[in-house]
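Justification of computing resources. Each target in the renewal requires a structure prediction run like the one illustrated here; the chain below, 700 residues long, is used simply to show the kind of job we budget for.
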Amino acid sequence: MTFLPDDRASELRDLFFESAEEILQALNDAGLALEEHPSDKESLRSVRRAVHTLKGDSAACGYRELSELAHELEDVLTPDLAKQHAGLIAEVVLTAADTFHEMLAAYRNNLQPPAGGSLREHIQRLLRKPPAALAEKAAPESAATFSWTEYERLLIAESFRRGETVYHVALHLATDALLPAAGYELAKKALERAGKILAIRPENSADVTNGGLIEAALSSTKPPDWIRKRCQVPSVVAQISMDRVPVRETAPRDVLEILVESEAAAVSAGIPGEFIDLDETQDDDSHPIAVPGGLAHAVAENTLRVDAGRIDTVMNLVGELIIGKSMLQRTITEFERRFPKDPLRGKFSDALAFQSRILNELQKSVMKIRMVPVEQLFRRFPRIVRDVAKQRNKEISLEIAGQNTDLDKSILDALAEPLAHLIRNAADHGIESASERVAAGKPGHGTVRLDAYHEGDQVVIEVSDDGRGIEREKILRRAIERGILKADEIVRMNDAEIHHLIFTPGFSTANEVTEISGRGVGLDVVKSALDALKGSIEIKSDAGKGTSFRLVVPLTLASIQALLFYVGGRLYAVPIASVVEINRITEDEIHRVDDHEVFQLRQQVLTLVRLDRLESQRPSGRSKRIFVVIIGAGSRRFGLAVDSLMGEEELVIKALEDQLVTSPLVSGASILGDGTVVLILNIPAVISHLARIPAVGATA
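Resulting structure tokens:
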């Protein structure tokens, strides 16, 4: 027995928790598939494979309770039991996913795991035979079934690959034997003398009865008659049945099957596994688990699991290189200005161009490492919709598109809770009951849609439903009741502003509080999460037709192409993707409407925003003609008055501590090559100020 050092043990457990999350998601997917098609053998096979892997990995990490419960579940997930209890098997799998999730959470926090009582109740229900099956069971079992587990079938396949012959042997024990347990041991020893036992049923003598049946998969180089004679035990074996197992063509195998086959090959060849005991405080009845090759080697050779913090460190270093490139570029520009005829100018420019090209490729490569498809997040939501539909007695389906859209891993993780809440809300509040839908002329089955796509250097995620829509009057009534609005303010509000009231902390239009929602907690968190990501959220709703939430987030928070400009002596930047155009207007073209400065751009009237007024700075001197940067954020546009333009540059975003930021309009900062600090505007925050900041000094 060998023991892993503490650092290796910790690394192994981290690997286990990461792979266990993937296994639980596979259980959820298979459970939902079995709910739709209870007789789907491939889904059941996927469940058994996932449970088998979880059982072995948890045992290797010393998590005995989880391993034992997974073992109990694996024993009942047989094709026969699944066929007998087709209506129950999906519920068992989904309950198992929830139970295992709770146990893993307890292990992560070094707490005592739950006992899993509900899952064990389901297992007991599976073990109960239906009445029809009991009637057919009147006579002692006489026919062999040879129903082997996935692992045992792989052992048989491995024997075939070594060129060995495998037989199915059925030994019928005598009905008048006095000690069936002793008879079982004698029959088993006879089988061991005849060849190598790859699988045997029952696995121990306690489960055998008088007149019972012993089934075995036997690998042997001897002829059938010789094996039959060896298995004849007088007064114990009453009848022997034997068939040669045909060699079957195998289907393409996935990585997991190959790994398990490697383990099977090691066991068949008699290679001892590496025993590891990660918990010296285990109970006396626990045993070290043989893990051939070690769990830590269970990852394909061409795949690396890297902590996200290490990638962030590399990305930060790339950011520093970009700043260094900017410094070098400014230095070369100064050199060219001072020595316009020096022959070194060309060499410097060539070296800078080469460095820039390599740096750009390096940045793209690191960014690709950080990017993951949103499918990793989307695959969690079918289970949420299914559970809400079941609790609320509704018929709801989830349609998903754009699963292959890539997004920064850190942003993806931050969107998990907001998206889960929006989808839960859509299923609970948005979709009506079947009777309501039919009465409204809709199909009884509701639909929630989830879509993702790229839009420039941003990612748009849309959550929509075909439900009742947002009731405008109910929102206004609730807002007045809570003192958020005054009755005379309603006249000046458009639909978008009214819809955004639902993001007010504690705001809820639900008539009842359920286990799912209605407490007024959630949508304000969604808005806060989008603000933290420098993103935005838009709502479109048609009464009786449905609601759509449009979430717009940056592709990454690491760097941006930005437009730089001065306002009131400060240097600011906005993402170039938000810039629609740059124009110049005169002060005479600015007018005031409803206490807002506006100007006309072709056929459109836009609000003019002056940063020096938003930030309560001293107004800069007014010039006759001013630059206006037209900013587009979703469906809204406004003009940003600037004193002068500096140009376009790639900026590495640096997060600012809360105590250093005095204005909510600033989402981050960057440093130029000459050391100048640039403040990056938070466009959603600027938009939120448009309705509240009055114009000063505008001309009528």
